[in-house]
Amino acid sequence: MKETLLLTKHMRENPENSHLIDVYEKNNGYSAARKVFKENNPGDVIEEIKTSNIRGRGGAGFPTGVKWGFLAEDEERYLVINADESEPGTFKDRILLERDPHQLIEGIIVTSFASNISKAFIYIRGEYAKPARRVQDAVEQAYEKGYLGKNIFDSGKDLDVVVHLGAGAYICGEETALLNSLEGRRGEPRLKPPYFPAVKGLYNKPTLVNNVETISSVPWIINNSGKDYAKLGVEGSTGTRIFSLSGHVNTPGNFEIEMGCSFGEFIDNFGNGIKENKSVKAYIPGGASAPWFTGEQLDIKMTIDDVANAGSMLGSGAVVVMDEDTNLVLAAKSIVSFFAHESCGQCTPCREGTTWLEMILERIASGRGRTSDIDLLLDVCDNISPGLAWPPQMTTICPLGPSAVSPITSLMGSFREEVESLLPKKVLINNE
Fold it and tell me: Which one of 28, 57, 161, 169 has the minimum C-beta count within 10 Å?
């Protein structure tokens, strides 16, 4: 099994200077942008993206072409690139920002042409200082070439791109919280409806919000056709995807593959198996928000639908592997602590509930647990996500609260005995 390099081909072939515009152009860079202005109308481009059946790479997995078609008519429309990559275990967008920023900018140009947009924003995670510098430099280089600004490619079209650095809040990865942050407001999610970005987004104008990897895929699709892109991967999960692999594997890293192989094949072929030849106890298929799978579920296919049917999500494409010696209670506590810290505090079930979940797990992990703690944990979880089902029911505006519930329901569903072993035995009175 080998990688299929579409998004990462340029950076692999030019490891030292792939971020420079001259190097990018020598490798067919900006040919897709020239092509659409010369040969296509906006509707043609949208149809090509629909034909590719590419689905969003940020987590939700919504068909990109369909999403573009939802954009409401207005004289002023915006494109926002969500580069606030903060999901634990996820680091695939970073390499695209740092090592091939012009691929993203070309994707922005094509997307803006298709959607009649004249201003775009790239919202980058606050901790991504070097990637942000690389992107800003690339934007300036594109302006100097006439690919951004007034009358780009002598087309009569204008396009400005603004690079905005976040302040380090995970919640701003949620698209409406990101829009609030861009506007200078508190970074907290908006109610939907009415604030569906395609209708009421940035400055209450129709706004497309897309992930870095999604938009970076657009130039290849335009140069090669949506039909050829759809031939890669499997039905419902077409094309390639960059997966971030971490945890107890021999070779962690980012790997670009066609979707459709099993998680076991992926871990063995690209991660070179588990350290010290140990077995897999559990793994997270799609970033910290996703419910866990056990080591007996390694045959699940790495597709959006297969993972969903198995009770989790492919999410941000982050595969975190935990070996047989992992203390899963501590692993769950680590994830819950993250979400408790990153809660914006807007919704009571999330603000209060995640804190309680963290405290109870800490009590159990430290050997101070109570016999009632499992019931208490599940009761708090049910208040955040009623029914404890997947996909989750929510009492919150955004999915952060239910994301904190995922590791606990995974723990109780598949590893309850491990939790019970840390609790004191129930005391029987009168042999009852």
Answer: 28
CA angle in degrees (0–180, nearest 5) for 140-146-151 = 125
Strands 253-258 and 280-284: unpaired
Q: Which long-range contacts (CB under 8 A, 24 or more apart) does 138-143 make?
A: 138/19, 138/21, 138/101, 138/102, 138/104, 138/105, 139/101, 139/105, 139/163, 141/20, 141/21, 141/102, 142/21, 142/102, 142/105
- The structure tokens 């979940």 sit at 357
- Give the whole-angstrom CA distance, residue 253 versus residue 91: 9
Amino acid identity for residue 364 in this structure: I
Domains, in order of start, for the chain: 9-230 (3.40.50.11540), 233-323 (3.10.20.600), 328-420 (1.20.1440.230)
Among 399, 260, 249, 405, smallest CA distance to 335 is for 405
Contact 48, 177 (CB under 8 A): no
Q: What is the pLDDT of residues 46-91, one digit of tens each?
A: 999 999 999 999 888 899 999 999 999 988 999 999 999 999 999 9
